[in-house]
Amino acid sequence: MVNLENLRLHLDGLAVRGAGYLRRYALKNAVEKAMGHVHIVALIVPLAFVVIALADRFAGTQAWVLNPLLTVILALVVPVVYVLLAALIGFVSRKVSRNYALALFDRELGYKDRLQAADEFLNSSNLSEFESAAVADAIPYAEKATNTKLRDIKIAAPAIYTTKWGHGVFAVVFLVAGMLVQFVAFNPSLEANPIPEELLALNTLEDFVFEEETVETPMESEEDTQTPPQDVSTDRTGEGAVLESQESKSQDSALRKANPSDSDPSESMQVGLSGGASQDNKAGSSSSSLSGEGDPEKKQQESKEPPKDRENKEKKERPDEDEPGDESAKGIAGGKGSGSGRQSSSAEMTENVSRPLENDFDTGVDLESDDEEDEKQEATSAARPMINQRKPPVDRQLSPSGMMGQDERDDLNGRGGAGARKKTRGVAAMLLGVPMPDQLRSQVNPGRVKIQRERSVPHPSQVANEESKDRGSIDESIGKVAHHELKPWMRNVVSNYFTSMRQAPTEQGE
Amino acid sequence: MAEQATTNVDSRAAEQAAHFKSVFQDIRSEVNKMMVGQPTVVDGVLTALMAGGHVLLEGVPGLGKTMLVRCLSDAVSVKFSRIQFTPDMMPADIQGTMVLTETASGAHELSFQEGPLIANLVLADEINRATPKTQSALLEAMQERQVTVGNRTLTLDEPYCVMATQNPVEQEGTYPLPEAQLDRFLFKLLVDYPEENEYYEIIDRTTGTEDVDISHITDGAEIVKLREIARAVAVPTTAKTYAIRLVMATQPNSSYATDKTTAYVSLGSSPRGVQGLMLAAKVQAILNDRYSISTDDIKAVAYPVLRHRIILNFQAQASNVTPDSIIEDILEQVKLPRSVD
Question: Which residues are paired to B109 by β-bridges?
Fold first, then answer.
């Protein structure tokens, strides 16, 4: 008697068991996959801890200050949570069909698909003889499978790669390193340069900053020297030329206020010249006599120092002499006054047009170079309009741009006559990028090589004479003929050639 | 009631399967009286005979290909004929032709003289030496089980089985079989050299004074019944799906084609390949005491069924890639259909 209901129950039970095994297998796979990455995940928190501690120590960000205890807990919890999440996703996402579950028993127990076939035939009607026989044949196998535990199937315990446990050591090392860095960062006794108490005792930060700035920044000192409005017309040693036009305008307006009836600008300029330049000339003579009377060592030191530092020093040493009424100390500076006064007519106008843009970006270095140029102009007593722009003279080279070859020098100004390229104009060189020099640089033709007769001494031949002998029958075997075996790369070349030959007509046909 | 019916049917199927297996084993043992070794080839020939297919035996001369078929014809009492193919052979030489004969009254008439193709078991020796014209004369006989000569069509008696041999070495002066004819063979079996210990037995059996007597085990009618038994074996969906996937994997650029297939195969298996896999797997299932096919049965017959249906491209020939290596790759790559619900 074949009990088909029993078989169905057995198959149902096997399907449930098989699905459970397969889900555990999926869980195992997910855990194994997660364990493959968990060593990297375990390093994340300690590594971040070290990085944050280092950033806090050296960059002083103080954005994230991690508690060491919290870090240790996070370093332990994050990998565990990662593995648990991966296992959960792998377990839930696995969908096992009934046939798949039965196939597990068929495969593992060597039943040759008997359970799958019986389960399929049981659910169909009008069974053939062999289908019925297949169902009946599966009954003992189903009972046996029900009573068999799949302990031998290695799907329960996930494989853990102990070789990757070394990353845990790295994680501990990182944690310790981070803690050390943090310990050093938060321990005030280990600070290399503690803040002096006198600085901490300062009421405001401005006091401290002011002292430092007065010593260091040259721009500030210049501004300080320029701050008295009455010095603008007389003291022109380190002043910016930018302010010159504004100052002259303010001077003009002041003069106009003083003499409202005098509205002629030429006259006001004459007044400026007489009031400033004549006094400065006198002061120049007096300063030269003063500088000659100084200490020789001090004089050498002063000559080595830059003019601005020297001026600042002089201002510090003689604060009283900077008063507006005292004109005895104006040496060379006084002479400048006359120069700038003359410049106001032509050169000053050009400078006013070109400089305001530069002053927005340039620092004191550009101002110094401009001052040097002003000095040069004053020395030559002539204004050269193009000298400030530092442009080369107009090039007379008429060849198109981009055709400068190696044989053309960059500093050609056309005064040496027409170059090689220029001579070729009108021929093939009219085509852009095709230089056709008419001068060919080559070496002298060396001519034919002379071959001298070499004297050679004849030597007797060392080869023995060949005796004549019977050549043998012409039908005799010639022996083994060497067969040339192609090397692998030669075979590849031949095969590639014929493959391409074969493929060529097919591609054309397509 | 249904259970009782199932039991009766089950017992009848079991008897049929047991009978099939016993006949199969008896024929095998009789053939093995003369044939030494080559168990795969012997089983393959018998499987093709039971499944109703034709066999192409390929091997170097002297390995016993012709002797195997002769032994089989002795064991199975059927009409046997042998055709030694030559380049000058014409279709009429194998199919038969109309000849002028003299009747008893002295009159003359045209009558059909049957050729060697009209038999139950045909040994087509060195089939690749015949011209394509003569080879094509086999096509109708192998597939349709009939021969057409002029306006006369003769139906061949069952069982009908063509067992052809060819020599892979001597290719000069031969005509490779066209794909259409190759596809009609159920199996292509490769006959290899015997093992060292088998040579002793070969010497004793063939150079002594004793003659080997092969007795008749069965006849043509029983072979036809055994074929019906083999066709009755149940086929679960899993096995069908697997066979279909295997055959599709041999076709380049199909959904189951492997990289090797796409690179080296110019023509894959036709649907005859699936039919061959199923029929041969059914015989294998009975021989393995089962009533339904398993995927293991399909794997076991995949090589002889598919190797001659895979036509390699020139790249494969230049790289020494064989059809067997393609099938090996396919068996590794194609997954078993476990979830067919």
Answer: B101
- Is residue A293 classed exposed, middle or buried when 0-12, 13-18 and 19+ CB atoms within 10 A define those classes? exposed
Residue ranges in chain A whose pLDDT is less than 70: 1-2, 60-66, 151-168, 181-454, 471, 483, 505-510
pLDDT of B115 strictly over 50:
yes
Can you tell me whether residue B166 is helix, strand or coil? strand
**Distance from C-alpha of B283 to C-alpha of B48, rounded to nearest angstrom:** 9
- Selected residue with higher pLDDT from B114 and B3: B114
**8 Å CB contact of B232 and A128:** yes
Arithmetic mean of pLDDT, B139-166: 85
Domain that holds residue B275: 233-341
CATH number where B283 lies: 1.10.8.80
- Per the domain annotation, does B182 fall within a domain? no
Paired strand residues for B102 = B108
Residue B307 lies in a domain: yes
Instruction: Specify the pLDDT at position A371.
Output: 59
pLDDT digits (tens, 9 = 90+) for B41-91: 899 999 999 998 899 988 888 888 888 888 888 888 888 888 888 888 888
Q: Are A88 and A9 in contact (CB under 8 A)?
A: no
Taking CA–CA distances from A494, the nearest residue in chain B reads B318
B294, A137 in Cβ contact below 8 A? no
pLDDT bracket for residue B302 (50, 70, 90): very high
- Mean pLDDT, rounded, of chain B: 85
In this prediction, residues B113-141 reach a mean pLDDT of 86
Mutate to test the interface with B, among A102, A104, A130, A503 (most CBs of B within 10 A): A130
Report the residue of chain B nearest A131, measured CA to CA. Answer: B234
Residue B273 forms part of a structural domain: yes
The HSE-up count of residue A383 (CA atoms within 13 Å, CB side) is 13
Domain total in chain B? 1
DSSP, collapsed to helix, strand or coil, labels residue B107 as coil
B156 and B26 Cβ atoms separated by less than 8 Å:
no
Residue A50 is encoded by which pair of tokens? 């070290």
A97 closest CB neighbour out of B234, B293, B341:
B341
Chain B nearest-CA distance from A2, in A, is: 6
Cβ contacts of A403 within 8 Å, gap of 6 or more: A421, A429, A432, A433, A435
- Reduced DSSP (H G I as helix, E B as strand, rest coil) percent helix, strand, coil of chain A, to 5: 65, 0, 35
Sort residue B70 into left (φ over 0), alpha (ψ -120 to 50) or beta.
alpha
- Contact residues for B178 (Cβ-Cβ < 8 A; gap 6+): B132, B135, B136
Contact (CB, 8 A) for B44 and B72: no
Q: How many CB atoms lie within 10 A of CB A243?
A: 13
The amino acid sitting at B169 is V
Enumerate chain B positions whose Cβ falls within 8 A of a Cβ in A.
2-4, 6-7, 9-10, 12-14, 16-17, 232-234, 236-239, 288, 290-297, 313-315, 318-319, 336, 338-341
Please confirm whether the linkage preceding B159 is cis (ω < 30° from 0). Answer: yes
Measured N-to-C along each axis, helices A307-317 and A218-226 cross at an angle, to the nearest 10 degrees, of 60
In a domain, B304, yes or no: yes
* Alpha-carbon span A500 to A497, nearest angstrom: 5
Q: What is the ipTM of this complex?
A: 0.78
The answer for residues whose C-beta is within 8 angstroms of residue A129's C-beta and 6 or more apart is B9, B10, B12, B13, B16, B232
Burial class (CB in 10 A: 0-12, 13-18, 19+), B237: middle
Q: Which ranges of chain B does DSSP label H, i.e. alpha helix?
A: 2-34, 39-51, 65-75, 91-95, 132-144, 179-182, 196-206, 220-231, 237-249, 259-264, 271-287, 295-306, 314-318, 323-333
At residue A70, the pLDDT reads: 78
